[in-house]
Write a structure and sequence with these properties.
alpha/beta, 16 helices, 46% helix, 356 residues, 8-stranded parallel sheet, TIM Barrel
């Protein structure tokens, strides 16, 4: 690192491709929405105790990690609640220095009180649009279908109706084991034919075969997490020395990996940051982006992820600037807006930071 002063990552512009709306609520918002909805299932009504109960640092598996979403989903069952959550997410990310953020959520999880998929999507877009107007953040929406549910094609069709109106992508999320992505080929093919970007969770809770199914069967353009591609490599002294067929495809075709270091630690992909595969993958030429995944459940913001990559894994400020550019380049949103962010905001800020 040039200079001896620790970088101010909040002040540096950042880009985010993988953040779940139902995993990023403010604790106070959870409490207020629960009261408004008459939801009595929260583990505590004390803000500090509730925040502690949401934190999934010791979950140890993806399946255990996902259990915390029962409460956030329960309080997001009206358009008003969804709009508020989306608006606050945009505002909070902008305050953290995020200039480009593709947020995602699953409409099928929000139908317990009869809300239609289209209504929740429209509400999320309204919230993000308001946040954009107030803060300047560029925040398009990715609509997610749950791979353990049977409604993926219906979700895809709902997302397609908002193409060109703020929805830029389609996603498959949820537990990988036992729920292969290609069970949802009608949904992924409909999304791609319509022109939506396709990001599929793969290589988080399962290995290279899950990644192969997402890429070769479903034609995903990005991999949500994707870090278990490391299982298709050979390493010596912690560094990658050769690649298997799937890893070669991911690296050479420049498939972006939506890496979330802290979330991965919480789900048991690595025991410590030092053993997380993001460093070896980056040095071997994989296209890495850094993400929060779930800010509430992991107790982080994107500045924390950048600081972790810098302080614990040795990423330089210049490298983090290149990673930010890579994320914006890999985005599904309007290309002109993204390129302007790179030229006018990201490059000047990181150039100045590396000179200090």
């Amino acid at each position: 690192m040039v200079g001896s002063v620790a970088p101010d990552f909040v002040a540096l512009p950042k880009a985010l491709l993988h953040d779940h709306l139902d995993g990023g609520l403010r604790v106070t918002t959870v409490l207020e929405l629960a009261e408004a909805a008459g939801y009595t299932g929260l583990p505590s009504n004390d803000p500090d105790a509730l925040a502690s109960s949401f934190h999934q640092g010791d979950s140890g598996s993806l399946e255990s990690y996902l259990e915390a979403f029962d409460h956030t989903v329960a309080v997001m069952q009206t358009p008003e609640a969804v709009e508020r959550v989306a608006y606050e997410a945009g505002v909070d990310l902008a305050a953290d220095g995020v200039v480009y953020a593709e947020l995602r959520f699953g409409p099928s999880l929000l139908t317990q009180r009869g809300m239609a998929h289209e209504d929740s999507i429209e509400a999320a877009l309204a919230g993000l649009s308001r946040a954009e107007r107030e803060t300047g953040i560029v925040a398009p929406l990715i609509v997610t279908a749950m791979r353990q549910m049977s409604y993926s094609e219906k979700v895809a069709q709902a997302a397609i109706r908002f193409l060109g109106k703020g929805v830029v992508g389609f996603d498959l999320a949820g537990p990988e084991a036992g729920f292969p992505a290609d069970d949802h080929l009608p949904a992924t093919r409909a999304a791609r034919r319509a022109g939506l970007g396709l990001s599929i969770h793969a290589g988080e809770g399962d290995g290279p075969n899950s990644i192969w199914r997402a890429l070769d069967r479903c034609c995903a353009q990005r991999l949500g997490h994707g870090v278990r591609i490391i299982d298709d490599t050979v390493r010596a002294d912690g560094e990658i020395i050769s690649l298997g067929l799937i890893a070669t495809q991911v690296r050479d075709q420049r498939i972006p990996l939506e890496v979330s270091i802290t979330s991965n630690l919480h789900t048991g992909i690595a025991e410590t940051a030092l053993t997380h595969p993001v460093g070896p993958l980056y040095r071997a030429g994989f296209r890495i982006t850094l993400n929060t995944d779930n800010r509430l459940m992991s107790g982080i913001d994107l500045s924390d992820e950048y600081a972790l990559a810098h302080d614990s894994l040795g990423f330089t400020v210049a490298e983090l600037g290149l990673i930010t550019e890579a994320a914006i380049e890999a985005g599904f949103g309007d290309y002109g807006r993204r390129r302007r962010l790179v030229r006018e905001v990201v490059r000047p800020a990181y150039a100045a930071a590396t000179r200090s």
